[in-house]
Amino acid sequence: MQITQEQYEKIAKYLPTQRGNVSMTNLQLINAILYVTENGCKWRALPETYGNWHTIYVRMNRWSKNGVLSRVFAALQTEGIIQINVEVVCLDSTTVKVHPDGTGALKKEGKQAIGRSRGGLTTKIHMVTASDRSAVSFSLSSGARHDSPEGMKLLFFTPACDCEQSLLMDRAYEGDNMRATAKELGYTPVVPPKKNRIDPWEYDEELYKRRNEVERFFRRIKRFRRVFTRYDKLDIVFAGFILFAMIVDALV
């Protein structure tokens, strides 16, 4: 997979201006990062045709920590390339296995949402999506955390929409506090009650069928191996790869 010049032009103005004696263009850099993101290889295994692996590694880390990729992602949303102003959004999470190389960082170096669950060391990606091709926002938590509290936090940081929105969620989010918070934030929660509910509610079963859109979106970004498995010790760097994968997915 390669980003073409035409696709690159859609994000070029949001990337840092290159200064000094720089031999690698931003487009070349993006395609080098894409190779690592797609194939999940170590930085040192990057083919020499892409340039010096250490230079690319340093630039990717800098872009992640300085918020460059976040700004590009937000710009694509503003321009409508990533659609977020829709009437239906979905909330869900997916679990990512943590590779041994992704552990061992000192706590003072930054947040590390890594926890031990049945599958070993894992991280959860919590995501609000507008379709099977568009993400609105996401966050990370340790794999042992319950979905509902983290999903509630994510909603507070999700960009508001002018239109009325239905929020599709599975039973992990059917708690009273979760539904009340969703309503306070302007959403109409569409979530089936648990079977042991004393006072079950009715919900739009036909609309709820669209909840699989978030599952399909997870499948799209997990085709990038640096998202499917976590190799990065710090959340901010792993989140950078997630953002990068979503930007590429929106462009191609």
In terms of DSSP E residues, the strand content is 15-25%
- Spell out the helices and strands N to C: HHHHEEEEHEHEHHHEH
N-end to C-end Cα span: 9 Å
Uncertain stretches: none
The portion of residues assigned to helices is 25-40%
Total E-strand runs: 7
Category from helices, strands and their pairing: alpha/beta
User: Biggest β-sheet, characterized?
Assistant: 7 strands, mixed
Shape by Cα distribution: globular
Query: If you average the pLDDT, what whole number results?
Result: 90
- Supply the number of helical segments: 10
Rg (C-alpha, Å): 19 Å
Describe the structure in your own words.
The protein has 252 residues and is α/β, with parallel strands linked by helices. The protein is 38% helix and 17% strand. Strands 1, 2, 3, 4, 5, 6 and 7 form a seven-stranded mixed beta sheet that branches. Helix 3 (53-65) packs across helix 10 and helix 4 (68-78) runs parallel beside helix 10 (235-251). The longest helix has 17 residues, at 235-251. The termini are close together. The model has no long low-confidence stretch (mean pLDDT 90).
Give the topology, please.
Blueprint: H1 5-8, H2 26-39, H3 53-65, H4 68-78, E1 88-98, E2 115-117, E3 120-129, E4 135-142, H5 147-156, E5 165-168, H6 176-184, E6 187-190, H7 205-208, H8 212-221, H9 225-228, E7 229-230, H10 235-251
Parallel strand pairs: 1-5, 1-7, 5-6
Antiparallel strand pairs: 1-3, 2-3, 3-4
Observed structural traits:
single chain, 252 residues, alpha/beta, seven-stranded mixed beta sheet, globular
Explain briefly what this protein structure is:
With 252 residues, the protein is α/β, with parallel strands linked by helices. It has helices spanning 5-8, 26-39, 53-65, 68-78, 147-156, 176-184, 205-208, 212-221, 225-228, 235-251, and strands spanning 88-98, 115-117, 120-129, 135-142, 165-168, 187-190, 229-230.
